[in-house]
TrEMBL record:
The keyword Signal applies. Residues 1-32 form the signal peptide. Residues 103-214 form the Right handed beta helix domain. Coiled coil: none annotated. This is Right handed beta helix domain-containing protein. Keywords: Signal. It comes from Candidatus Entotheonella gemina. Gene3D superfamilies: Single-stranded right-handed beta-helix, Pectin lyase-like (2.160.20.10). InterPro entries: Beta_helix (IPR039448), Pectin_lyas_fold (IPR012334), Pectin_lyase_fold/virulence (IPR011050), TonB_box_CS (IPR010916). Residues 350-371 are annotated as: Disordered.
């Protein structure tokens, strides 16, 4: 065997041995995922202590009622309340904009909260500073500010049954380039909150497919509280069989303002009833679209069924179904500088108001929270 062949053979054997050793080493590089039990009914145990020692990928299983506020900065951490755990922030917080949650997820990615209730905090769950989190079967109630909030580039996903109720400000807030996705088959309810049921503000977005959304009795502390408020170049997309219901909110069922966009596709539908002003308001260079097969019912509202004003556009497919019924101020109003397809204004009646001067109260300016 020549010298060059010996060298090549040695290199080949060395490479083979290295690959074998590398393959054997791979299993030892993985970090085992740990389940950490916490019984908050035991004074010696706290959720915060468990969070401090947890590693990425760990699961903390919680039982009982935890009287504390916690911050999560660990990636891929799961907090599992097993369907009954309560995290209680202690209450006593003023109703004012703040950035603190009973559970705050600050910058961490892939966090999962499941099967628990958060209550009596400033915010219930706060996802902030680019964090990403999934919430499954979570209830947030009785907080001074938002029930569930994603802000400052945060990403939230809701699955299962999500309830946000009896909070001092918005039930759900998606602010400052943040996004919220509602998974297929999920149910989201935002009820009896001080301001809006869902607020989407400052280049943020909400997307839902095959989801049931209830936005009822919001605006307890703010006469301008809406069911769904989409503001400041923000977007909301509803598709599949998504059903949006907004009933008995203090002001409008749904409002769009400041170059925002709301789109219904497939067989998705909106039912806007018994609200204190208009069923649907579209303002300030915003756009509303109903695709083929979609449905809009705006009924028994104290204002108009639909208002399109201030260079706004309402576009409804001829194959969508729009019903504007028994609204106190009439079916619809479209300002001279705005546009609405005829399909958005059905049924046309003698009480239709289109292109005529009328004082239409536009939404108050929203202020995003700061930290």
């Amino acid at each position: 065997m020549t010298h060059s062949r010996l060298v090549r053979t040695a290199m080949t054997v060395g490479l083979f041995v290295s690959l074998v050793l590398l393959g054997q080493a791979i299993p030892y590089q993985a970090t085992a995922q740990t389940i950490i039990p916490v019984d908050c009914n035991d004074p010696a145990q706290t959720l915060n202590d468990a969070i401090q020692v947890a590693n990425p990928g760990d699961t903390i299983q919680v039982t009982g009622t935890c009287q504390e506020m916690v911050t999560i900065t660990t990636d891929r951490l799961t907090i599992d309340g097993q369907g009954s755990a309560i995290i209680d922030g202690g209450g006593g917080f003023p109703i004012q904009p703040t950035l603190a949650g009973v559970i705050t997820i600050d910058g961490a990615s892939g966090v999962h909260l499941t099967g628990l209730t958060v209550q009596n905090g400033p915010d219930g769950v706060l996802i902030v500073r680019g964090a990403s989190a999934r919430l499954t079967d979570v209830t947030s109630r009785g907080n001074a500010d938002e029930g569930l909030q994603a802000i400052d580039g945060a990403t939230a996903t809701f699955s299962g049954t999500i309830v946000s109720q009896d909070n001092g400000d918005d039930g759900i807030g998606v602010f400052i380039t943040s996004s919220l996705t509602l998974d297929s088959g999920s149910s989201v309810s935002s009820l009896n909150n001080g301001d809006n049921g869902i607020s989407v503000f400052s280049s943020s977005s909400v997307r839902a497919i095959n989801t049931t959304i209830r936005l009822d009795n919001n605006g307890r502390l703010d006469q301008f509280g809406d069911g769904l408020s989409v503001w400041g170049t923000s977007t909301a997309f509803f598709s599949g069989t998504t059903m949006v219901g907004a009933d008995q909110n203090a002001w409008r069922g749904i409002v769009l303002s400041s170059a925002s966009y709301l789109l219904f596709l497939d067989t998705s539908a909106a039912t806007l009833t018994n609200n204190g002003s208009d069923g649907l308001g579209i303002f300030n260079v915003s756009r509303f679209s109903l695709g083929s097969g979609t449905t809009l019912l705006s009924e028994s509202n104290a204002g108009m069924g639909i208002v399109v004003s201030s260079i706004a556009i309402a576009s409804c497919s001829s194959e969508s179904t729009v019903t504007l019924l028994n609204n106190d101020s009439g079916p619809s109003f479209v300002s001279d500088n705005s546009q609405a397809s005829l399909a958005c204004l059905e049924p046309m009646t003698t009480t239709q108001v289109q292109g005529q001067p009328r004082s239409v109260p536009e939404p108050p300016v929203e202020e995003a929270e700061t930290y």
